Amino acid sequence: MKRIFPLLFLLIFISKIDAQEYFPNNEGIQNKNSNYTAFTNAKIFVTPTQVIEKGTLLIQNGKVISAGKTVTLPKNTIVVNLEGKSIYPSFIDMYTSFGIEKPKRGESGRQNPLYDTKKEGYYWNEHIKPETDAFQNFKYDKTKAEDLLKAGFGVVGTHVTDGIAQGSGILIALNNDENSKRLLANKITNHFSFTKSATTNQAYPSSLMGMIALLRQMYLDLDWYKNGNSTTKDLSLEALVNNQKLVQIFATEDKLNSLRAAKLAQEFGLKYVYKGAGNEFERIEEIKKTNAPYIIPINFPEAFDVSNPYLASQLDFSDLRLWNQAPTNLKVLSDNGVVFALTTDNLKKTEDFRTNLLKAIQYGFDKTKALEALTTVPAALLGKSNEIGTLKDGSIANFLITSGEIFDKKTTIYENWVEGSKYVIKDIAAKDIRGSYDLTVDNTPFKLIIKGEIAAPESEIKSLDSTKVNSKLSISNNWVSLIVKSKDSVKTNFNRLTGYIENTPNLAGKAILFDGKESNWSAIKTAPFEKEKEKAKDDAKTNTIIPVSYPNIAFGNTEKPKQETLLFKNATVWTNEKEGILKETDVLVKNGKIAAIGNGLSDAAATVIDAKGKHLTSGIIDEHSHIAISNGVNEGGHNSSAEVTIEDVVNSDDVNIYRELAGGVTTSQLLHGSANPIGGRSAIVKWKWGSAPDEMLYKDQPKFIKFALGENVKQANWGISNPTRFPQTRMGVEQVFTDYFQRAKEYDAAWKKYNTASKKSKGKAPRKDIELETLAEIINKERFISCHSYVQSEILMLMQVADKFNFRVNTFTHILEGYKVADKMKEHGVGASTFSDWWAYKFEVNDAIPYNGPIMHNAGVVVAYNSDDAEMSRRLNQEAAKAVKYGNVSEEEAWKFVTLNPAKLLHIDNKVGSIKVGKDADIVLWSTNPLSIYAQAEKTVIEGAVYYDAKKDESKRVAIDKERNEIIGQMLEEKNKGMNTQEPKKRIKVEYHCDTMED
Predict the structure, then answer these.
(1) Tens-place pLDDT, residues 184-218
(2) 452 has which bridge partners?
(3) Is 484 in contact with 468 (CB distance < 8 Å)?
(4) Which SS3 state, helix, strand or coil, does residue 56 take?
(5) pLDDT digits over 702-739, tens only?
(6) Which of 604, 655, 753, 864 can pair with 902 through a Cys bridge, CB separation 3.0 to 4.6 Å?
C-alpha cells in the first residue's frame, strides 16, 4: 500500500529525496561535499566471511562505492592510509528503546482496578496497543547515541516498550551530524511482550495465562475483522492489519516464555523473532525446535559476594548455576544452529557489551558467528541486507576502523563511521607516549608511568618516597592533559597540566596549580613502555562450567529419564482392582505399561528390583494442585476467565515437582484459582521431572475448567478499599452463572446456524469468542467443571443452575459441607474432592468436620482427598490414612481416595489409578504400608521411566553440596581479582493457593 507522509515529515527528511534539491536554500554558500574518500591498505571485512587483505574501501555521499584489492580512485578522492588497521561493518542492535521516553503510569496510579476500557474506537483491552507508533514518540538522544557508537553500533531498531501489543518500531542510523539522514525506516518492526502497559489500570489480564489468552483472542479478532465481519471500525485492529507485513518481534524474556510464544505462533501461522533472556541454554533442545530466530542479550549476572558464609547459604542454587553457565549461552545456541542477533538490552551500562561479548568468546563462542550476530544476521532479519550489515557496493557506509581484530581485548576502536559521517572514539593519529618519566611540577619531583592503550593511556604517579598520587591522563589531537592531586592529604585539591606532544620523547607544558598559580611542568622519559604479561594469563583463565541438568536446578537429572523394562519381585501389590491387595507378587513393566502381574515372572531384558517386604501401588493422583504454574494462578481481571488455560503456563522448573515425586505423586490436575466465579481451564499433568512443559501434559486429556463459590469470588477478602467488580454477593454469583450460560447457549446456537446455512445465506460470521466457546462445551457435555465450594446453599445452587442448562457438575472441590448434602450430590451424580481435616482457616469453613469424606463416601459419592497445597501434596498418603482414623474406611478403600477415585473424577481411570495389565506404568514402590507415617517412596515410576529414586536422591544431595562449594569458590576468586560483585539475595518463592493474586 502506498504510504503518504505528512508535509512535516517531508521537510525534515528533505535530503533523502534527490528530486527536492531545487528547494530554496538560505544557508548562503552551497556546502554539499561530493568528494570520494578512500581508505587504503586496510584489512577489510566486507562481510564476516569475505575478507580483503590490504584492500581499499571507497565511499561517497554516505554509500559504499567499492571495496576490493584494486579500486580505481576518482580524481576528487581524499585518501586515508590505514596501514596495519582493520575495517568492519558497524554493528546493528535491532531491539532497543533508544530515543523513546519510558512510559509513565497514568494519573490513576495504583488506585482500584479498571475493569472496562475508557477508550472509544480502539480494542476492548488497553494493554493491546498496536496503534502505537515509535516514530511519533521518538527524539534523538545524542548522549545515548555516543555510548552506542563507542560500543561499535551504527544502526538501532527502537520502539515503545509498553503493553502486550506494543505497536510499530523504527530503524535509526546513529548519525550525530546529519539528522535528516537518520531515519532508515519509519515502520519496520511490530512488537509484542508478556508485560502489561504502565499507562492503564485495566485489571485484565492479571496473569501470564491471561496475557496469552488475550493474544489468542486478539489474533482471532484480527482474522474476523480482516474478513469484513465487523460492523464497526477498530483502530487497534486496523493497525494490526497494517503491521502484519512488518518484522514481528516478541519479547519473551525467558526460555519457557519463548516456548509459549512459539506455541502461539504455530497455532496462528505466525513468524516471530524472539527476544530472549540469556538462559536459552537450559532448554536448548526445545529452543532449537522452535525453528525461529532470536535476539539475545548478554547481561551476564555478576558474581555474588559470598565472603559471608551465612549470606552465601541463602543463595538459591539456580542463581549460582546461572552465574557459572550464562557465558556459554551464545556458544550453545550457535553450536545448535540457532540463528540469533545480539542486543545491548538489559545492560546496566552500554560499555559492558564489549566486555561481556569478549567473555562469551572466551567461553567458546566463535568470533565469526559473533560478527554475524552483530551485522549480517540482524540486517537479514530486518530485511535490510542490501543496505546495512556489510560493506558491499551500494550499502550504507557504516563501518568501524580498528587497530586489529575486532574481538581482541587489546584492539582499539578508533572511529565509527555512520552514513559516511565520522565519529571519533579514539585518536587514530595519537602518538605513543607510554613509558617511564621523571616528572617535575613547579620544581616538585615525581615518578610518572604512562601505560594502557596508545589512544587511551593511563597514568600512575608516585612521589619520591613511593607514595601514590591520584591522577588522570587524557590525550586529544596531540594535546596531553594530566590532573594531579596536590600533596595536601586532607583537602581535595588538584593541579592541572597541559602540553602539546612534540616529536621528542619528552613532555612539557603549562601547569595551573590548585591555588590558581601558573607554572611549568616537564616529564623526561627514562624508560620505554613494557607490556604486562603476567596479568594476561589471569584474564585468559575461565571457570570450570557446571554441566546443564534437566531441569537446570537442584535435583535436576544429568539426562532425561528413559523408559525401562522393570521387574518388581515379591512385592505387596495394592491393585485397586477386584484382586485387592496381593502378597509376594511380581509386576513386570514394559514399554511404559503394566505388562504382567503374577508369580515367578521373568524377562531377560528387565532390571530386577527386589521388593520383598515392600509395597507397590499405583501413583498418587492429586485432583487439586497449584504448583508448577508460572506467573499467576488466578486470572481475576474479569468475573469469568474461561478463555485462559493452565496448559499455557506449566512451569517445568518448579522444584515442587521433584518433591511431589518423592511423596509418590505421579499425576496432578493444575487448577486455576478461585478469584472469580468462572475460572480458567485446568491442565492434567504427569510429573515427568526434567521434561519440557508440553511433555508433561497428559495426552488426550479430558477437558476441565475451574468454577468457584464463596468469599473469594465476591472479593470479600481481597483487601481492596472499594471493590467494584461484579459480583459482590453470593446471589450475584448465581446470576453470573446464569447470564454466562445463557450467552454461551445463544453463541453456540449462532454458530450452529451459521455452519449449517447455505453459502448464499450465511451472511457475516459470528465473532469467535474463546470464553463463550469454552462455556458452550460445558453445555454440550464436552468439558467438566471442578468447583471450589464450601457452603451447602451454594453447592445446591450450582447443581440447580446445571440442571437448568442440562449438564452435570463433575466435581465439588474442598466441599467441606458436603456431608450435609451428600444425598443431593449422589442424586446429581457429582463427585467430591475434599480435605481430610482442614477447618477454621476462614469463616465459611466453620462447619467443616474430619468425617466429611467418609460420610460422602458411604452415601455413594466418589470421594478423593486433594492437597491444594505444595507441602501437603508430598504426604497425601498420610491424608488418605485419616479416612481410616475418622471414618473407619478400610485401608484399601482409603488408599483409593488418593489414587483410583481422583482418576475417576478426572475421567482417566482407564489408564491410571490402579495396577492392571495394559494400564500406564505409573507406580510407586514404598518402604512399608503406604498409609503409615513411616512410609517412604523408594521409587516413583511414570510410564516405565524412574523419575524418583531414593538412593539416587542421596547422591544428588552430595553432588549439590559439592557443586555449590565449587561455584562459591569461583565467586570468591572473582572478588579477589577485583571483579564486580553483587550482594547475596535470598529468592523468595511464592507458593500458590486458591486465593493468590499476582502483584
Answers:
(1) 999 999 999 999 999 999 999 999 999 999 999 99
(2) 457
(3) no
(4) strand
(5) 999 999 999 888 876 666 656 777 788 889 899 999 99
(6) 864
